[in-house]
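Hi everyone, sorry if this is the wrong subforum. Our group has a chain we'd like a structural model of before ordering constructs, and none of us has done structure prediction before. Sequence below.
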Amino acid sequence: MAKIEELEPLLTAPAEALDVEYKTWLDLKGNDEHKAILAKAAIAIANEGGGHIVIGMREERPNLVSEPRPAEIAAYDQDMVNQIIRRFASPHFHCKLTIRRHPDTGYEHAVIGVPGGFGFPVMSKSGTPQNSIRPHLCYMRKPGPESSPPENQADWERLLNRCLRNRREDMLDAIRTIVEGGVPPPAALEKTDAERQASFAESSRARWKTLTSNLDPNAPERCPQGRYELDYALLGDFEQPGLRNLVDILRRAVIRASGWPEFQIPPHAEFQPAAIDDGIECWLGMPHPKRWFHDSAHADFWRASPEGRMFLLRGYIEDSPSILAQLPGRDGQSFEPGTTFDLSNTSWSVGECFLHATNVASILAPDRDLRVVLRARWYGLAGRRLASIGNTRWIFQDYVCRQDEYATETTVEIARISDNLPEIVGPLITPLYERFGFFPLPPTLVAEELVKMRERRF
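Answer:
Right subforum, don't worry. Here is the predicted structure as tokens:
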């Protein structure tokens, strides 16, 4: 990448080339077509071997003229630029934004450094209504200059030869390293959606463990008898919000269908979500005199990411002595914390999580077709038996679980969730209940419980 002092000639002696493209000011915050224009240029220059995009130059043939940024166009930042690249390019790559003042006009210009050296063609992964960029195309720079897809054998040959040269150079560098007695670095592979979500969940779990590490091992906030985790990621084309906007989205997305909503934002200032690193987190189990409940079922920890990722950790309601005291079983039967697993609660918790994802998607990207990958994991199952904590279901024999943990996941279109919730939740949780002595979870039970949940009959 060029040094800062090497960028000045791009402004003082502007001339478009295969590795340099000039654009007038683009609204990169509010205009999707302008974002697509930038992404298309960046993809083409990346395939050319790298270069620069200079923004703020108006074409007055045969010259390029420096012009000020209009007041209605927000200032650029590097996160804004790379968020656009992540949205439109596959694989995405990191661009460097430099703001340089023109020495003659005094106007500031955005100079975006685009990397090259890829051993494979970079492609677009989404498009826009006006086709400023189209999906699944491999844009490249052509004489003119212009950015467009390969149209003939010569175009493809030039593009693929560049990729092959890059691969050959990488291979030769690795051979030189080995000959000199070193160890070549492993190839950097782009993570899949599932791997990125797994990493997010792992970091969230680690954060919870850090927060609870100083508590007594048997403190309810540590969920010593068991817990469950729900996490999801929205997949598709949407603009990532800032943290302030994300909090507002989450506040509007809360599903108030159960007595203790998932991903809730409490009213008391002491428990409000906080911006931590590149996301938002909230811990309702924080030791504080204003806490309403002091059991693991109400000590939620959740995290949210602008990438559309959510994570929730919660203890079992079956382990709350105060709740068990209010809900005795049939014929005077009593329940002990850590010994039972409710027949109905899982339908509610998983169903509510799907509906939350639907709400977030509808607010975040109301006109986009998104999907969601939702994952669930239960801990501390071994030795528990199925029961009806609310005394609403008959269970005629003992169904005991011998497996301590169980995990499952699924990916569905957001548009399917509202009308097909039982058909989505049922197959996802049925294998969990089979761990309890091969218990056959009736599909009608899931459907009935989800109706109760949506009607707020708790």
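For your construct planning: The domain at 4-155 is CATH 3.30.950.30 (Methyltransferase, Cobalt-precorrin-4 Transmethylase; Domain 2). The mean pLDDT is 87.
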